[in-house]
Design a protein that fits this description.
One of its GO terms (molecular function) is ATP binding. This protein is an alpha+beta fold. It has nine helices and 21 strands. The protein has two domains: 219 residues, P-loop containing nucleotide triphosphate hydrolases (Rossmann fold); 71 residues, RNA polymerase II/Efflux pump adaptor protein, barrel-sandwich hybrid domain (OB fold (Dihydrolipoamide Acetyltransferase, E2P), Beta Barrel).
């Protein structure tokens, strides 16, 4: 089942397209307010577009030019929200059977479908319980079964792990990885791990527009938007290319790195980006920087120190540019770092990837 949509919602600042191939899972990423939930509402029929058209497997869902509009229940689209939203007065089995029954299936067939999908999500033992008797992870499994029992042509998952505790999320990730295989689906997430595990392709929304899109691994390895770079845990700067493997960034000056092979090489003056890992950023107190002339050396001010497991993440600001570095607690203590401290950040050119933006 293929899905294609372009829609404009003026009040929400959305003007974006979303295409999903048959059997493909696409992850939609972006900061809060980027328009992700609006796209889902448009696809599910919960939001009306000011302009645009959507079709699912060749059937028009809406077309503002002709006035065509298919109501939500007739679209073949299932939306799995952050909260399970199970009917509290129904048993688990009857919750899952609701979709087939609403589509006109006989009671026995609906119950058989419900039993099948509860088995698929390892929740068959919960069939006789009420939603109030379920844990968060169990309820979300049942919600997945309910969505799949309706046999949707398109499955929308809106941050399916957001309401789960840390212990329950990994099991649901494994479950979704299995049941989404070969199914046409779109998932909203804020986690790079979810994109890697679940999605064939990623679409990044910023300000209601598509900032970039592409295969998951390639996009997170070579992001072209600040949000995707942050999701991948990379420092990100942008500016005009000055030569192969370098670019000029306001506030930093020339940034030197390694240019890529192939079509991603920017020509002089073209828009380019550079990315590098926080672990590759060396931090020195101002006046104590290393001897010699490292190619990438920038003065900055420490803004925040953030504990991250066995490391300390140093958030620093050079004029107009935010950068992060990862240090061991011992190194941070030896440098006597604190917010407001003047530092010098050094990155070897070999650790910086520069490519067309």
């Amino acid at each position: 089942m293929t899905f294609r949509m372009h829609a404009v919602v003026g009040e929400r600042g959305v003007d974006a397209s979303l295409d999903v191939a048959d059997g493909e899972t696409v992850a939609v990423l972006g900061p809060n307010g980027a328009g992700k939930s609006t796209l889902f509402g448009l696809a599910a029929g919960l939001v009306r577009a000011d302009g645009g058209r959507a079709e699912l497997d060749g059937r028009v869902l809406f077309d503002t030019a002709t006035g065509e509009w298919v109501p939500p229940h007739a679209r073949g689209v299932a939306l799995l929200a952050q909260e399970p939203l199970l009917f509290p007065h129904l048993s688990v089995l009857d919750n899952v059977a609701f979709g087939p029954r609403a589509a006109g299936a006989p009671r026995a067939a609906a119950r058989a479908a419900a039993e099948h999908w509860l088995g698929e999500v390892d929740a068959a033992a919960l069939a006789d319980r009420r939603p109030a008797q379920l844990s968060g992870g169990q309820a979300q499994r049942v919600a997945v079964a309910r969505a799949l029992a309706a046999e949707p042509h398109l499955l929308l998952l809106d941050e399916p792990f957001a309401a789960l505790d840390v212990a329950a999320a990994p099991a649901l990730r494994r479950l979704l990885r299995r049941v989404l295989a070969g199914r046409t689906a779109v998932v909203i997430t804020h986690e790079a791990l979810d994109a890697h595990l679940l999605a064939d392709r990623v679409v990044v929304l910023e300000g209601g527009r598509v900032a970039e899109e592409g295969p998951t691994a390639a996009l997170l390895e070579r992001p072209r938007s600040r949000f995707a770079a942050g999701l991948a845990g990379l420092n990100f700067v942008r500016g005009p290319a000055t030569a192969e493997g370098s670019l000029f960034v306001a506030g930093l000056g020339e940034v030197f790195g390694l240019g890529p092979a192939g079509h991603d090489v920017p020509s002089s003056g073209d828009d380019a980006v550079a990315v590098f890992r926080p672990a590759d950023v060396a931090v020195f107190r101002a006046g104590e920087e290393p001897h010699g002339s490292p190619r990438n050396s920038w003065r900055a001010v420490v803004r925040e120190l953030e504990p991250r497991g066995p490391q300390i993440r140093v958030h620093a600001a050079s004029p107009g540019t935010a950068l992060v570095a990862d240090l061991t607690p011992a190194a941070a203590a030896e440098l006597d770092l604190a917010p407001g401290a003047d530092v010098v950040l050094v990155v070897k050119a070999a650790a910086v990837s520069v490519y067309a933006g």
